[in-house]
Amino acid sequence: MTRKIVLLPGDGIGPEIIAEAVKVLECVDKKFGLKLKFEEELIGGAAIDEHGLPLANSTLEKCRAAEAVLMGSVGGPKWDTMDASIRPEKGLLKIRYELGLFANLRPAILYPQLADASSLKRELVAGLDILIVRELTGGIYFGEPRGIRRLDNGERQGYNTYVYAEHEVERIGRNAFEMAMKRNKKVCSVDKANVLEATVLWREVMQGLAPEYPEVELSHMYVDNAAMQLVREPKQFDVIVTGNMFGDILSDTAAMLTGSIGMLPSASLNSDGFGLYEPVHGSAPDIAGQGIANPLATILSAAMMLRYSLAEAEAADAIEAAVGKVLDQGLRSADIWSEGCDKVSTQALGDAVVAALL
Ligand code: IPM
Ligand code: MG
């Protein structure tokens, strides 16, 4: 029996970095006998150009029938001026929503070899290992009503709705507590309970879950303070759990602490463990096609896919170790390059990971 993986390269640097991840997956496939089968589909701007929509229903069905989805990135200036309803990002939001991928895991791990690439002092970030658990299918991203309306005085008004039902908070909360049990047993729930009722309820639900996980220490932090603490003393955090919009913002901040957003993978999971895996970074249209993008976040996303959706921990470990080896060899893409290292292309970095696996 083969195991079907849908590849969604998307836009910008997406196709280049997915190509490197596939190389690596083909290598571990042979080595560990995984029987992977890849099927490539369109998402984002590439899908708009082909079908007029950022995610065709047929693509969604193929994803549903697969064991996992590996995505590159979506978006670019070519589609920025399109109507909001068919922008590339809508394809990503649709796939998250339709497949019920409510749990977004965004680890921010600093590879010791890259400590000097961080914008913070080495001692503040050395050994950093945070997991952001972001709610991904609710909150202000999906709340209704939303839109831009005309007021009686003729002026236009934009509006969105920040909503969370108890069950939505509870399931992401459980996810965070479960993750913390496998780590340092600390959960920090981030909200804005001093202003927003939706997050007053969020905090109550988190507090309600805590007695079920007596070994885990639960704390709460307002989002403005959390943003500050992340750059002041990031190592105080283990697992951070938060809503969709706050998670979007804080995960970019956490990413930068590690030196480069080009290093960070992510998993978006539903309640059955089905997942979509993608790098945290975007489509970087400014460097697309030049062969200088960092493929490591996508390669590490492929490792997460093997670990969480395919239960192939050994193959996942092997990929992560190979990435470490390549960094030890001093090979770097431009975004993580520093004096004394070798600056290499996207392809060369992918090849080096494959060589390190053999
Ligand atoms: C992310 C991105 C997306 C988001 C965009 C591209 C819709 O920023 O995955 O963090 O806001 O969720
Ligand atoms: Mg984002």
Overall description:
It is a single chain. With 358 residues, the chain is an alpha/beta fold. It has helices at 14-32, 45-51, 57-65, 88-98, 122-125, 166-181, 197-209, 223-232, 244-257, 296-308, 313-328, 346-357; strands at residues 3-10, 36-40, 68-73, 103-109, 129-135, 147-150, 156-159, 186-191, 217-222, 239-242, 265-269, 275-279, 331-332, 342-343. Helix 6 crosses helix 7 (197-209) and helix 10 (296-308) packs antiparallel against helix 11 (313-328). The longest helix is centred in the first third of the chain and has 19 residues, at 14-32. 48% of the residues are buried. It binds 3-isopropylmalic acid and magnesium ion. Residues 89, 92-93, 248 line the site of 3-isopropylmalic acid. Residues 89, 92-93, 248 line the site of 3-isopropylmalic acid (IPM).
Brief synopsis:
By secondary structure, the protein is α/β, with parallel strands linked by helices. It has 12 helices and 14 strands. Bound molecules: 3-isopropylmalic acid (IPM) and magnesium ion.
